[in-house]
Structures are given as C-alpha cells and as structure tokens.
Write a structure and sequence with these properties.
Helix content of chain C: 25-40%
Order of helices and strands of chain B: HEHHEEEEEE
Largest sheet of chain B: 5 strands, mixed, barrel
CATH class of one domain in chain B: Mainly Beta
CATH topology of chain C: Rossmann fold
Number of domains of chain C: 1
Shape of chain B: elongated
Strand order of the largest sheet of chain B: 2-3-4-7-6
Oligomer: heterotrimer
Structural class of chain C: alpha/beta
Chains: A alpha+beta (417), B alpha+beta (269), C alpha/beta (243)
Largest sheet of chain C: 5 strands, parallel
Strand content of chain C: 15-25%
CATH superfamily of chain C: P-loop containing nucleotide triphosphate hydrolases
CATH architecture of one domain in chain B: Beta Barrel
Distance between the termini of chain B: 58 Å
Structural class of chain B: alpha+beta
Shape of chain C: globular
Largest interface: A-B, 69 and 67 residues
Number of strands of chain B: 7
Strand content of chain B: 15-25%
Chain lengths: 417, 269, 243
C-alpha cells in the first residue's frame, strides 16, 4: 500500500525527477561502460594469439612489438633482414616460423605479407587454427586471402580484384593500382585483428614495391607481368613469429636472439609482454573506474539535493498521511521507496544507454584497436556495481527520510506553511 | 531543522558512502598496482653480456656472471618487503651441503597430502651441481698464475657446462611443491593457464635466463590458473613433476607439471 | 471525579501538556467530556491551545500528565505506533485546507483511511462503493471520481475531505477550521452536509474554530479559554509582568 503511494507520488513529480533519473543513468552508463570495455579489450587481446613461443622484430620496445605485430596497432620502427630471419629459423630449437610484413593497406584495412606457414601455424583463442569460409591460401604471386570483416564490410567474394595502397592511409597517388590482386580465399571469423587483415604473399609485397623507392613511385614503371621476372625473395620483413620444439628453451632462445650480433633484434614472449601491457594500463583503468564511481556519487548527491529541496512543500502531504493514521516510519519508508524507484529506473535506463552506446561504438573500436565487443548481458561484477549503487542510494535516502520523519512527529497535524 | 545530531549522521552516511564507492570501484578493476614494474627494479650488474662468438646458439656463451650460483649460505636473507630485485630468489629449503652422490636433501618437508617441498638445487643432477663443477676444475684453476687470461676462458667453460647440464630424471613422477616466479604463456580471459616457472624474479627481462634444468613448464589444473594481476608475485606450484631426459613421441625433454595447483607464496610459512 | 461516563466517547481528565518539563504548560484541562453523537464546537482564538488539544485528541502527541480516554481506551497509555493505529481505526480528521493528496485520484483519497485500517475497510465493506455513495451524498459529481485533487474547487475539496473522514464509520470526526477557507454560502451548505452525514454514520463531531458565528449551529459550544486553565494562567502572567 505504501508502494502505491510512493509510486503515485513519484509519478506525480516525474518531470522534475526525469533529470535526476537521467543523471543517474549517465553515471551508471559510465561506470558499467568502463568496466565492460576494459574486460572486452582484455579478452580481445588475450584471445588474439596462442601457442606462439616468441615474436621477433627490430629492437624497439616489447609492448610496441606486440602491438604492431599481433594487434596491428602502431608501426614498426625498423625492419628485420631476411638473412637474420633465415639464420634464426635454421636453429635446431626452432620448430616453425611465420614471417610477416606490414605497411600497406586496402581501404582502411591493413595488408599483411606472409607465407603459407601462417595459415598452418597461427593460432588464436584456445589453440584454434585459422579456417577458410571459402577458397584456399594464396599460391600465385597476385593472390590474396581476406579476413572475414574485410570481405563482409566491403562485399568481396572470390574472384574479385582489389588494389593495394602504400602506407596505412589510402590515397590515389599511393595506390599500387597497376598490380591488382585476386581474392582466392576468405577466412572464417575469428574475433581478432585477423578479420580485418588482407593477406598476400611476401613476394607479392616485393612485387608491388619493385618500382617504388622509399615510398615514391619511380618513373620507370614495371608491369605486373614483368614483375614476375624479378627475384622476389624479400629483403626485409617487419617481424616473425616462431614456435619452439621445446617450450622450456624459450628463455635461452630469446636470449640468443636478443644478443644476435648481426642485427639489433628483440624477441618477446607474448604471454609475458601481455602481462606487462596489463600492468602499465592497470593504473589508468583503476583511475577511470574511480572517476566513474565519483560521477555516480555526484549524481546521487544531486538526487539527495533535489529531494531535500522538496521536503518543505511536502509537509502538508505528510500531515495528511499522519492524519489518516500513518506512522512516522511510513513516512521514512515512503522516501526510501521513492528513491528506490528513481535509482532502479536510472540503472535500467543506464543499461539501455550502455548497450546502445556499445552497439554504436563497436565498429569503431574494432577498426582502431582490434577490440571486439560482445554485447553480452552484465556479468556478476557489474550486477554487483548496480547493487551497490542501489544500496548507496537507499542509504542516502535515509537523510531526507529521517528529516521528514522527525518533522512529521513534531508538526503533528498543524500544517505550518 | 537539521539538528546537530542529524548533521553528523548525514556526514557519517556520506563518508561511508564514499568509502563503499571507492572500494567497489577498486575491486572489479584491473590488476593491483602494488607490484613492482621493470623500471623500478634494481638492475643486476651482470646484465651486460659480452659473448665472444656471434650468431648460433650452439656456440653462444653465457654472460660472465651467473646469478643462479647458490653463493649464499643456507641461512637465507629475510624477506620483509614484497619487492623483489632482479635475480633475487626465494629463500631456499634449508639443506646441508651435500656430497655429489647424494640425490635427496637431509631435511625433507612433506605436507599432509604427500607433496614434498623441492629445492631448485635438486633439479640439477648430481655431478653437475656448482660445487661439483668447481671441484672438477679446481686443480686446473690452482695451476694457473695470477692474472692469467686463460682463467676467464676456463670460467666460461664451467658456466657452459652448468648452463647445458641435463635434468635430474630421478625426480620423475615425484609429487612436489615448488616455489618460484611466473613467465606467462597461455591465457584464458584474465587467467594464466600455462606458464614457465623459474627460480628468480625477472627471468625474461634483463638477467641471463636460467638453464633448462631450472625451468618448469606448468599447466594449471582446470579453474586453477593464476590471475594476471598476481603474476608478478611468487607462487607455490603443487603437482606431479615429470622429468623427461629426451624428447620422445609423447613428450619433450625437460621438467613439466600438469594439472598443477597454484597458490600464492607466503613467506611467513 | 465521578460523572456518568457511560455514553462518553471522549473524556479528558487533569490533562496537561508542555513541550518539556522546564516550560510552562501550554494546556491544562481539568475536565472535559463529550457524549456520543454530539456536535461539539471548541471555540478559541489562535494561541488558545486548540492545536495542542487536537494533537492530543488525535494521539499525535502525548500529554505530560493526565488522561485522554477515547471510546473507553486510555490513549495516553499507548505508544506512538498504537496511537497511530488507533487514530486510523477510530478517528476521521478534516483540515482547514489542502486535505487531499495531489497525486491520488479523488476516489483514492477518500478510501485512504481504509488502506491504513483493517477495521474501517471491513466496516466499509466495499470501500470504493461507500466512497461513491458518500461523495454523491455530499454533492460531489461522480465524474470527478477519477480526477486529481488539483482539479477541484476548494468547496469540493473540503467535501471530499468529509467523505474521507467518514468512510468506514469512525467513531469520532475531528474538524480543524474546515470552513475558514470557504465563502459564506458554501459554509452553511458544508455544515449542513457534514452534520447530516455524521449523524447518518453515528459519528461524534468535534469541531474546532475561531469563528464565533458558527456557535448557533452547534448543540454544544465550549470556549477554549474557559476550559484551558493554562491559557488563563498565561494571560495573568503577562498582566503581572506589565505591572
């Protein structure tokens, strides 16, 4: 019965309450949003690579190497020579290698040069191998295999021709338009940056750059067919992944590569570097979470302020209720129930905002950072946040509730305006 | 009409709420901040290697100083703070200096489930332990003049022997408890499910890597992984140790523990 | 004091009230008794203690000393909760104005006491029905039943308040200046309706007002400053202070 009164009372003042509800929604959106994106980002990163013992690249920074080689974020500062790659690949301890070459793009998607070993050895998630939706790995010089997202969003099918651009941004004068590539394979969706990658052979990369020098096309143009005549063994690659015969030798091999005299190289253990990455952004994540919590808190204080300011006008209401036999604790309960309704409405609306916002941000996050957001319902930790928010609101509602309680006791039936 | 009592009650409620909030905000957030980062750590002075030979790993020489050498006496240093220095190892299971022939330590700590505490030194087979190697070359060293450059070569040789020493297959199928540090390999969400266990902190950063017989490839039992936030801290790994001398069809050489239980290392034990 | 109390619905005996021990009594009534079915006018100017008396009669406050007996029950012996429940069960209250909750419909306002009192709900049988009947009898058009309080005129609001006070047949109806906000025409009509319906339900009516012109409509008039000795005492203290 008190519920009914509380609901009708709140509904009666709904216009004023809408702002309060909205501010709570926005703060819940922030709080839950930060948590969700953080968790999804972690999952995305963690699921991108598996069963790879070392990643080797030019000496820069370990996190940098991980980011550009696996997540296609950022760029390499330098390259790895083909000789060094072959030297290391020839070691007894090394079981397999996958060389990769980055630098070009196709309509916003990164182009990666590699060889057949990639399709055989690359693993993601829980030791899952790459699978083909249709088609086969590349064999001819101008073949290309597309990631699922590339094919879907650009509407490519087997047999289509695509033009590759030099550099990460597509511009007309930087297009290798004289050497189109044919789509021979499309991969299954993986939920990793692989989906957003256009794969060609290392020789293909050499071929399209044969008449380019330091990023500029030379006047002496060599046609696609003519290019075949050249020795297209790559001079350099960006980085390579490797798997060992025995994982226990990881550190020894890593050390040897780090000390390789011919060229400044670094080898990272992906799992270890990933942990370092989490460490370094961990502080940032916590700051964000605290900020979001403070935003929610200020929204609740706002709610408190607006309720306190209406207390005076509601004294009449309280006197009427007392007259019909309401106990002062009914008055307290009334305020708490109204607050409960406000904060629950705020949370629900906040959840709505969250999922709408995430749905809109999904493509952008995937494109820029390779993070795939799953629109799953809130997990245990997030429900707890909602629960704590509600609890806090109820505690805060005790303040106006108790004030109203005491006033109703003191006022009695006399309504002093 | 807010009386003093009500004002202080309000103040209490608000401060309690702030506290609850900050706690709730910190709890589900990312790994704890308290762990040391590579930047703060003290760099061991042995981190500058100068191997004579380039390229191939077969001829690679270990750096001049080897921090795995148990030069400390059985009385271990106390661990008051949680900070670890590069190359710092955990306090060892108290053992008395052993004869080369002896494979098991004198003091054996066995817990209630039949798992015994293993010392990293035991994982080096008899004959290859530092004192054994020292003993082997003792005479040669004594014969040298002061300031002889060949002494360094001899030392490098000794290092190489130590680094390439085989594993102790007598430890195979033993139920053990081993303390150490984690180098993560495989994840499931924010949990590390497979990792390499090493005796000292920072094995993959700047200090020389541990030899193969001081590395264990651990696979956690289901649901028993390590949270990535705890991966900088030492742990106890409990399980059955597999020690394969040779790579076979069914397994690779080296120490492995599968279905391991992992618990935080509490140095007040 | 031995008076015939057999038909007294309200008996006040040696009643004193002060905000706290150190202050002078606001109210001191040696004796007051109200018979069943009476229409009693308690007349007094502001400051004569009528508000305090109302609060004591309805059980909002507790007397400092003395007894308040309503329908044979010693109200002054109850705790706050019991007093509130008693009020819900046996009393109807009408204020000077703003009697109604703005966010409930007229019908809901009228049945409000039944939400707080099982006894009155049962007595009403079907509260909604009784509400309709009461409102009809009080000349409140039934079209207004679902409307909210703000849409009614003051006169209509006051009559709705009467319906609310009467629903479920409480023994006593207490009205605090209910006509002060009405104009002269509405005033007499209001009183007519109030008396008629109260008699219909068998209620005792205690009417509090400063307006002496109402006196001739009531069977019994009691002047506050006659029965409230504390008021007289306060006046004499003031006179003493002047000299």
């Amino acid at each position: 019965m008190i519920w009914r009164i509380a609901f009708k009372s709140a509904w009666h003042r709904r216009v004023g309450l809408l702002l309060t509800i909205f501010s709570i929604s926005v703060s819940m959106f922030l709080l839950l949003g930060v948590d969700k994106v953080r968790k999804e980002a972690h999952n995305s990163f963690v699921n991108t690579i598996s069963q790879t013992d070392l990643i080797v690249g030019a000496r820069s920074g370990s996190i940098n190497l991980l980011l550009y080689s696996v997540f296609r974020i950022g760029n390499a500062t330098n390259n790895v020579s083909w000789e060094s790659f072959q030297d290391i690949a020839a070691l007894d301890e090394v079981a397999w290698t996958v060389p990769i070459s980055l630098g070009d793009s196709h309509r916003g998607f990164r182009v990666m040069g590699t060889n057949e070993d990639y399709f055989q050895h690359y693993r993601y998630g829980q030791d899952e191998a790459l699978a083909f939706q249709e088609g086969v790995p590349f064999s001819d010089l101008y073949d290309t295999v597309l990631g699922a997202e590339v094919a879907d969003s650009l509407g490519y099918v087997l047999g289509d021709e695509i033009i590759i651009s030099h550099g990460a941004i597509a511009t007309e004068f930087a297009a290798h338009d004289d050497k189109p590539f044919h789509v021979v394979g499309i991969l299954e969706r993986t939920g990793t940056p692989v989906d957003r990658t256009v794969h060609i052979s290392l020789e293909g990369i050499e071929a399209i750059h044969i008449d380019w020098n330091a990023g500029v096309r030379m006047p002496l143009e060599i046609s696609a067919e003519q290019a075949r005549k050249f020795d297209l063994e790559p001079q350099t690659i960006t980085a390579f992944m490797l798997g060992l015969e025995n994982r226990i030798q990881t550190f020894q091999v890593q050390r040897a590569i780090n000390e390789y005299r011919e060229e400044p190289l670094q080898a990272i253990v992906p799992g270890v570097t990933l942990a370092e990455l989490w460490r370094s952004i961990g502080v940032f994540e916590q700051v964000l979470a605290v900020l979001a919590a403070l935003v929610l808190f200020s929204a609740l204080i706002g709610m408190l302020t607006s309720v306190l300011s209406t207390l005076n006008e509601r004294r009449r209401e309280m006197a009427v209720l007392r007259a019909v036999g309401a106990h002062p604790y009914h008055i307290l309960l009334l305020f708490m129930l109204e607050t409960l309704m406000i904060v629950v409405a705020g949370c629900l609306f906040g959840l709505l905002l969250l999922y709408v916002g995430l749905a809109m941000a999904r493509p952008l996050l995937a494109e820029l950072y390779g993070i795939s957001i799953a629109l799953t319902p809130p997990d245990g930790g997030q429900w707890m946040m909602i629960g704590v928010a509600i609890l806090l609101a109820l505690i805060i509602s005790l303040i106006p509730g108790i004030v109203a309680y005491r006033r109703s006791v003191e006022d009695g039936l006399s309504i002093r305006i | 009409m807010l009386t003093f009592r009500l004002k202080s009650f309000s103040f209490l409620v608000i401060s309690l709420s702030i506290l609850l909030f900050v706690l709730a905000a910190c709890a589900p957030a990312a790994p704890s901040v308290a762990a040391p980062t590579p930047a703060d750590l003290v760099l061991d002075n042995s981190a500058e290697p100068t191997p004579e030979n380039p390229t191939a790993i077969a001829t690679m020489e270990p750096p001049p100083t080897l921090t795995v050498m148990p030069t400390t006496p059985p009385n271990v240093p106390s661990l008051e703070e949680a900070e670890f220095e590069l190359g710092e190892a955990l306090p060892k299971v108290p053992t008395t200096p052993q004869e080369s022939a002896e494979a098991t330590p004198v003091a054996v700590v066995i817990d209630d489930q039949g798992y015994r505490e293993l010392a990293w030194e035991e994982m080096v087979p008899p004959g290859f332990r530092p004192e054994d190697i020292m003993a082997k070359y003792q005479d040669e060293l004594n014969q040298m003049q002061d300031g002889d450059s060949a002494a360094m070569d001899l030392y490098d040789l000794m290092q190489e022997e130590f680094m390439n020493a085989p594993i102790n297959s007598e430890l195979n199928a033993q139920k053990i408890k081993l303390p150490g540090f984690i180098a993560p390999l495989e994840y499931q969400d924010d949990t590390i499910t497979e990792f390499l266990l090493v005796p000292y902190f920072g094995a993959c950063i700047h200090v020389p890597p541990p030899p193969a017989n001081q590395t264990v490839y651990v696979t956690a039992a289901d649901g028993n992984g390590v949270d990535v936030g705890d991966s900088y801290y030492p742990v106890w790994v409990v399980g059955e140790l597999l020690a394969e001398g040779q790579t076979t069809d069914i397994g690779v050489a080296g120490y492995r523990i599968q279905n391991a239980t992992i618990t935080p290392y509490d140095y007040n034990q | 004091m031995t008076y015939a109390m057999s038909d007294a619905v309200v008996t006040l005996s040696d009643l004193r009230f002060a905000w706290n021990k150190h202050e002078d009594d606001l109210l001191y009534i040696p004796y007051l008794s109200v018979e069943r079915g009476e229409h009693l006018l308690l007349r007094g100017a502001s400051g004569s203690g009528k508000t305090t008396l109302l609060n004591l009669l309805t059980g909002i406050h507790q007397p400092t000393s003395g007894s308040v007996t309503i329908i044979g029950t010693r109200l002054d012996e109850f705790n706050q909760r019991a007093r509130d429940q008693f009020r819900a069960d046996h009393l109807g209250v009408i204020f000077q104005q703003f009697n109604l909750l703005p966010y409930l419909s007229i019908a809901e306002n009228v049945v409000l006491p039944c939400w707080f009192s099982h006894r009155r709900r049962e007595k009403a049988g079907n509260p909604r029905e009784q509400a309709k009947q009461l409102l009809e009898a009080l000349n409140v058009p039934s079209a207004l039943l679902t409307k909210q309080a703000g849409k009614l005129s003051v006169g209509q609001q006051q009559r709705v308040a009467v319906a609310r006070a009467l629903i479920g047949g409480p023994e006593i109806v207490i009205a605090d200046e209910p006509t002060s906000a009405l104009d002269a025409d509405n005033r007499s009509r209001f009183l007519e309706l109030l008396f008629r319906e109260a008699d219909q339900q068998g209620c005792t009516l205690i009417f509090v007002s400063h307006d002496a012109h109402l006196a001739d409509q009531f069977s019994r008039v009691v002047e506050m400053d006659v029965i409230n000795e504390a008021a007289r005492a306060a006046v004499s203290r003031q006179e003493l202070a002047k000299t």
